[in-house]
Amino acid sequence: MSDVAAVKEAAGGQAALAQPPRHDSRRGRIARRLAPLPWLAPALILIAVVVLWPIVTMVQTSTQNITPIGVTIGSAGVGNFSKLFSDPNLPSILVRTVLWVVAVVGITMLISLGLAQLFNQQFPGRRVARWALIAPWAASVLMTALIFRWMLQPDNGVINVFLHQLGLVQFNSNQSSWLGRPDSAMAWMIGVAVFVSLPFTTYTLLAGLQTIPGELFEAARVDGASRWHVYRAITLPLLRPAFLVALVINVMNVFNSFPIIWEMTRGGPGYETNTTTVFMYNLKQSFIGEAAAMSIVNFTLVIVIVLIFLRVNSWNRQEAR
Amino acid sequence: MKGRVAASLAIGVAALIAVAGCGSSKSSSSSSSSTTLTFFGADYGTGPANSTTKYWDAIASAFHQANPSIKVNVQTVNWTDFPNKVQTLIQNKQFPDVLEGDTAPQFAQSHLLYKSSDVLSSSVLSNVMQKFLNDTSYQGTPYGIPFTTSTRALYYNKKIFAAAGISSPPQTWAQLQADAAKVKAKGYIGYGLPLGSEEAQAEALMWFLGNGGGYLDSSGNYTINSAQNVQTLQFLSQMVKSGVTQPSPGTTDRKDVWAQFAQGKIGMVGGQPALIPIIQQAGAMTSSDYATADFPGRTGPLASTLGVHDDIVAFNTGGHQAAIKKFLDFVYQNKYQLQFASEYGLLPATTSAASAMSSNPTFAAFFKNIPESVNYPSKTNWTTVENQIKTTLGQAITGSPQQILNTIQHSATSAS
Amino acid sequence: MAAETLPARSATAVRRTRPPRRLPPVKTVIIAAAAYAIAVIFLLPYVEMVITALRPQRELLARNYLPHHFAWSNLTGMWGSGFGITTSLRISLEVAGGATILVLLVAMPAAYYTARNRFRGRGLFLLVVLVTQMLQPTALIVGIYKEFLGFHLVNTVWALILINAGFNMAFAVWILNAYFGSIPVELEEAAMVDGSGRLGAMFRVTLPLAMPGVVTALIFTFIAAWNEFIVALTLTTGSAVMPLTVRLDSFIGQYTVDWQHLFGASVVATIPVLILFALIEGRVVGGLTAGSIK
I need a surface site. Which of A114, A138, A181, B356 has the fewest CB within 10 A? Predict the structure, then answer.
């Protein structure tokens, strides 16, 4: 590491990254190329062993012809992919997946912005209130989905009991069967997905809020700026880094989200509440090769979406300073 | 610098080896003097307290005492995850020696199984219910052994019937719908119709049989989209629209409908003997508050209703034929069959155990249906067809029965 | 995603504390009321879980908010040895704790180096790490089983630790990368001038300052490993190695579901995480802001 460069950058108030020295020998260059290895090796080994190897198996499976019980009877070439793309259910599932992700992530980010502002204020008992926010994150998503399904039962679910008291719903009516109708089922599942995503997102934004220097707000107040203007001109831009972190992580998690839909509707009726991840699981019961193909498509979709997103936010340019 | 690189790479590799090494002591060695059988089964219990693992563990240790050279490792998985776990095992070629809970023909097709006659003494084999045994045939030879069986009947709530002024259980579809309407007028659910993805194929078959339909015709070909079946679904659809069933039958599971019946909220439901322990546990009805009757058909009660059986299959991949035979002969003793049946409310699969239980009035009604019962097709592609029925049949209530049955029929005949 | 540095911090004012804002009382009351209301909403489904767990069989499907009798035995009864809840609690703690420690051990060197040095492949490394976060074990389950079969590690706690560590390492690397990056180098330089080596400087100076990031990675990994289900289900065959998530699954039977025990046990399963979070909550808030993209 070049100490001169490091100190110069540090003096400018930024954390320094080491710059490679200008002149060196060939042996030094090789040594330098390999220098990161001891630090990165454990991480790379863990990834290679635990993640990359199963990916290889998954890719293999997608090109094979496998019976529903799991016996491989030969190669399928691209047969699984062509069968997948000609499945009549796939287009609507893709559309629904996009809507699912957009709705859940969009609503989560919006509500979290508000929640973060609220919980950033000083008030007695703030610590306890913040702690309660953690509950959906700490509990397993599967159990949260199950309790919501329990509360939505048409005959005796607590939510229907409440709505019945308000005179809005009859027990055992079509309307009380929230999860039996695809549209209301999707709405409720989106609500549950937002519910379990809010804690992490709110805390991320909270942390972002706390790094904004208080002096900026003081200065704006002195200048007589309205609260809304302060929010738009100061808070939001400085919150952007935290916002983007939460956004990317949420997109990935929601795209891969499985327990909520599976436990609440099993993707039914038929395939009408399937997303690509649920569809993959459904396919797996009878068509293992095709399910692996769906996984690959799924995976590719997520990578493409996140990469495009990162590109748009030009992470690469600002990578190393 | 290079020394550091080499050192850390060595550490990484050593770590991997160590990790692999500390697991290697677990690999079992089967010397010529002792054999280890792996048993993989389904869990019929609802929780650790009555898990089927206990049942099989007890058999395994009693067996080991009687045969010290053979050890049996038992593992059970609950039903919802059972297919996936079996799939993972098979895909990785980790074949168990004995598998309980899956159907034989598809495994037999891949030449993975011993014939039933190879792994059971002839006396024990002839004691097994032949009707169900023949269902496990692939190309004419049985490859599985029924382990537990069940048939269906109509359960009805006598208290609700009395309140609604119904004197006897319905015998035809029209009567069932009329009775359901009377029950609904009293504020209960008339008939619980589970066509959700848990067991749609079972409920549907009970109704199909009532109209002279079913999944197979008399020559054994798929007739899923027969005119009678379409008519049946149209009847069900109109019955649902008249409001006498629970809402959204297309997404309701049997578990929920049974739980509601046990709590006295439903007038009639299609059930098995396994419903009885559930009713007893719920504590909402005494044994005189409910009764069973033959399931109604369109013009009269069904003489042949749905009969199901879960089978044991033995894999030939481990070469443990002799040990498996000893083990299975041990398993099919009367006492174990009776113990399983009474614990889980199911019927045994051997005729001797069945006659031992025939004095029990609750089971008598189900027993008499066994000889005439209709079972699921024993075709090699039945699992795939069954999955499709489970997922899509429920949509026939609100959609087009003809279209949905056509789709299923099409993939059933093109895949087999 | 490349982790970026935080806004500039001077060497002296690294730990930022906000001076308490003095709000007029009425406003505080309104804010507090809103916050409490929201906190209650967040807790409601889990309160319902507890209530359902306490329902006696007779009132399981009753149309009321609270049952007339509370079956406390539903909660106390599950601790018997037959249920295996205590064993599973221990296994879950081992798996989640082990995975968390492993993640920290593996991510810290990598994050430290990528934060301090520009090198060829830095972007690629961070991208690969990001990609691992996009995968879900559900799709890879067969490959995972096959692989751990080969290692003879099926049905061991170690397998679960390794898998949970591998799939959750990405987040830890980003968070730590950004946090390390935001700590000025001259602090370490100063420590090294005082006589400690590079590693010593890292432990004595950098790590304490990056503690919020460490704590954040800790809680994120712990929760993810604690609630992981599908891999645990596939890789555990014996009752002795079953974590809580798999144990809870056995309450779902073929014909019926043991709702009271299922919900009761899942409430119990949530408590360790809540306790852990209560202990370290203050540190987490500081940690989550790292890893931002400018």
Answer: A114
Beta strands in chain A (DSSP E): 64-66, 72-75
Question: Which residue of B84, B90, B95 to mutate against A (max A Cβ within 10 Å)?
Answer: B90
Alpha-helical (H) ranges within B283-333 are 321-331
Structure tokens at A187: 């709405």
Going by C-beta distance under 8 Å and a sequence separation of 6 or more, which residues neighbour residue C36?
A125, A129
CA angle A251, A253, A255 (to 5 degrees): 65
- Interface check for B256 against chain A (CB to CB < 8 A): the answer is yes
ipTM computed for the complex: 0.86
**Which range of residues forms the domain containing residue B398?**
153-305+381-415
What's the pLDDT score for residue B25? 38
The reply to whether A24 touches chain C by the CB within 8 Å rule is: no
* Separation CA C113–CA A43 (nearest Å): 12
Closest chain C C-alpha to A143 CA, distance in angstroms: 7
Examine residue A79 and state whether it is found in any structural domain, yes or no.
Answer: no
Domain span holding position A89 = 85-312
Question: Per-residue pLDDT tens for A154-196?
Answer: 999 999 999 999 999 999 999 999 999 999 999 999 999 999 9
Cβ separation of C223 and A137 shorter than 8 Å? yes
Residues B251 and B396 placed together within one structural domain of the fold: yes
A67 touches chain B (CB under 8 A): yes
Question: Is residue C32, in this structure, part of any structural domain at all?
Answer: no
* Residue in the block written with tokens 């609750």: B362
Does B394 reach chain A within 8 Å, measured CB to CB? Answer: yes
Q: Taking phi first (over 0 means left), then psi (-120 to 50 degrees means alpha), and beta for anything else, what does residue B249 get?
A: alpha
Strands B98-100 and B35-43: parallel
A43: amino acid identity, one letter: A
Of B44, B48, B274, the CB nearest to C83: B48
